[in-house]
């Protein structure tokens, strides 16, 4: 398992972020020492007139072709499960996690990414219409074939993750070694539904699971809350507006001021150095945002600052 690190979220590369800017961002990320790029086969069908995904993978693939040697310096993470099979009809036409879908989807992703393997391949969400044993076996085949290095489960509950891992152990195939969930320093009201369809929040149970399963890495998406920590024009969603968060944000601001850094950087440092340590996925649209995020890797929170951040509720 690799050490926790900043991950470049490539969701809007090729759609909301044009190709020239996307390439510049990818260059900047790698030149500044970034290693992991996270995408999905469905990114971003909702932001493209076609209603079908693949735009992000294609941009990354063309960039890799035009940058000889870059593939050896970056690790590619992508996903299967949510690609619409009928444009404009999602989620009812989402591809799912049957064995034929998984076998077909990896080939299409490899073609778009212009590579012969994916470093981390995720089940983008649970699919309870398919026997879990079939999904586990199909993912295991990809490892045996050398098409995938590691497997992960995104938007899975801890019990579903563990059940899949046990099925993999029983069948002697590779299982999930990464869990990807929505998580940040700010927290929604307990029990309140998240504003984004399909998002699964990291809970106390999933955090405890990762803490004790030493071979499982945790990745956090929406780690910077779409800019809400630092941009007044992007307020937190309503479910995040409660007294506990107000107290957390006050402490976050205090610590950022003490260190002379941004609140984003404190959040990233808090995630990277926590228990369990977490790899934050960061979406960016400018080179300055990449520099800000990667600088957080060297930001040392004192034990006292971390305690204050942890204890604010």
Could you outline the blueprint of secondary structure elements for this entry?
Layout: E1 7-9, H1 19-31, E2 36-38, H2 55-66, E3 75-80, H3 99-113, E4 118-123, H4 132-144, E5 148-154, H5 158-171, E6 176-182, H6 204-212, E7 217-221, H7 243-259, H8 263-272, E8 278-283, H9 287-295, H10 303-311
Parallel strand pairs: 1-2, 1-8, 2-3, 3-4, 4-5, 5-6, 6-7, 7-8
Helix pairs in contact: 1-9, 2-3, 3-4, 4-5, 7-8
Gist of the model:
39% of the residues lie in helices and 14% in strands. The protein has one domain: TIM Barrel (Alpha-Beta Barrel).
How would you explain this protein's 3D organization?
The structure is a single chain. This protein has an eight-stranded parallel beta barrel, surrounded by four helices. It is built from ten helices and eight strands. The longest helix is centred in the C-terminal third of the chain and has 17 residues, at 243-259. The protein is globular. The chain has a single domain (7-311), classed as NADP-dependent oxidoreductase domain (TIM Barrel). It is of the alpha/beta class and 313 residues long.
């Amino acid at each position: 398992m690799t050490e926790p690190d900043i991950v470049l979220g490539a969701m809007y590369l090729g759609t909301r972020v044009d190709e020239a800017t996307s390439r510049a961002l990818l260059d900047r990320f790698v030149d500044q020492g970034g290693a992991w790029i996270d995408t999905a086969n469905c990114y971003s069908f909702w932001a493209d007139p076609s209603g079908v995904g693949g735009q992000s993978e294609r941009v990354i693939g063309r960039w890799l072709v035009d940058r000889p040697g870059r593939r050896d310096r970056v690790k590619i993470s992508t996903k299967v499960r949510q690609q619409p099979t009928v444009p404009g009809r999602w989620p009812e036409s989402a591809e799912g996690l049957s064995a034929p879908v998984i076998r077909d989807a990896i080939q299409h992703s490899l073609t778009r990414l212009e590579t012969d393997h994916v470093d981390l391949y995720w089940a983008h969400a649970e699919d309870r219409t398919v026997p879990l044993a079939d999904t586990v076996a199909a993912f295991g085949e990809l490892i045996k074939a050398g098409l995938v290095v590691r497997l992960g489960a995104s938007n899975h509950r801890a019990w579903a993750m563990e059940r899949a891992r046990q099925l993999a152990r029983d069948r002697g195939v590779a299982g999930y070694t990464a869990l990807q969930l929505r998580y940040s320093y700010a927290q929604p009201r307990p029990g309140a539904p998240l504003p984004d369809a399909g998002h699964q929040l990291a809970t106390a149970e999933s955090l405890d699971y990762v803490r004790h399963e030493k071979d499982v890495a945790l990745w956090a998406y929406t780690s910077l809350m779409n800019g809400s920590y630092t941009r007044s024009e992007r307020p937190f969603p309503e479910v995040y507006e409660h007294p506990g968060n107000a107290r957390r944000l006050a402490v976050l601001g205090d610590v950022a001021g003490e260190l002379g850094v941004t609140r984003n950087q404190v959040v990233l440092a808090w995630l990277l150095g926590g228990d369990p340590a977490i790899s934050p996925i960061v979406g960016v649209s400018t080179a300055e945002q990449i520099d800000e995020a990667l600088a957080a890797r060297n930001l040392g929170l004192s034990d006292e600052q971390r305690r204050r951040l942890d204890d604010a509720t």
